[in-house]
Amino acid sequence: MRKGNTVKVSATLLVLLMGFSLVACGSSAPALQPTVGGNTEESSPATEPPQQESDAIEAEGILTGWADPHTVEIRVNDKAMSFQVGEDMQKSMDDMDDEDTVRFKYVEKTLDASTKQLVLTEITKIASADDGNQGSGTGGAVASDRPATSELEVTVEGITEKRPVTLAQAKGYSLYIFEPMSFDAEDHELTMKIDPAYKVEIEKLPADFNLDHLKMDAREELSKNGEVKALTAEQLSNGPMKDARLFMMSQNEKKTQYFIVKELDGNGYIFHIHAPVGEPTEGFVPMVYASINSIMNE
């Protein structure tokens, strides 16, 4: 009897041990599976990258027309570009027509990895040298009898040569400008295309202008930039501005300014020249001298 009982107890223990092993194996498997509906990296919503906006970019082109009420097309270097236009900007373009030459600024917005948007931030109409009517919008300047294109002699870095120029016209006068330059007939400004900080403001004087008063005006204007110097007729006699009635200048480490007065057939002009220190200065000032010496009353 004892032996039989021993066998039965051993068999029972063996069954229990096998049962515990199966339970242990079964309970460990689910622990390796992710919880249904739990927070995982795969289920986290993707965040959209923030929009990026470039610095303002300045350019010139030909206005070709409106694609829709909020999109205008401008041809830049023979390439059509589309720009988004806000309501305020649309109002400033009411007096502009197709094929007008314009100077403008825009920013480039990156909406996502594959989408960029060009947004117009500023635009002005500038004179077109091709139509012989740079004075449009300036009070009724008439077309000039002067040739639309010509050549002017200019000395740059010791080399004197003739370069092609284009006629630009504003109310009461016309002058020739070189290719790197742009002329705004409304504002009477001549600027470098690559950097408008290089500019000439042209001011037509009344018939009864007083040269002594202009000297005081020049000194006040130029003294803000540095020490003022006045060149004498003798100092100017061998230079490009030998016909100037008044030539005054001042300079500092950043910029040279000029206040030049010329008289032509009884009409006086002031040329306020701003020449920042930089590589373009060497060509800018000689070209300006040649351009303002080409001025004629219209």
Radius of gyration: 38 Å
Structural class: alpha+beta
Which range best describes the helical content: under 10%, 10-25%, 25-40%, 40-55%, 55-70% or over 70%? 10-25%
Instruction: Report the portion of residues in β strands.
Output: 35-45%
Q: Report the sheet with the most strands, covering strand number, pairing sense and barrel closure.
A: 7 strands, antiparallel
Coarse shape: elongated
- Give the count of helical stretches: 5
Secondary-structure element series: HEEEEHEEEEEEEEHEHEEEHE
| Overall residue-averaged pLDDT value | 81
Amino- and carboxy-terminal Cα gap: 141 Å
Strand order of the largest sheet: 10-11-12-16-15-14-13
List unreliable stretches of 5+ residues. 1-7, 13-17, 20-41, 129-141
Number of strands: 17
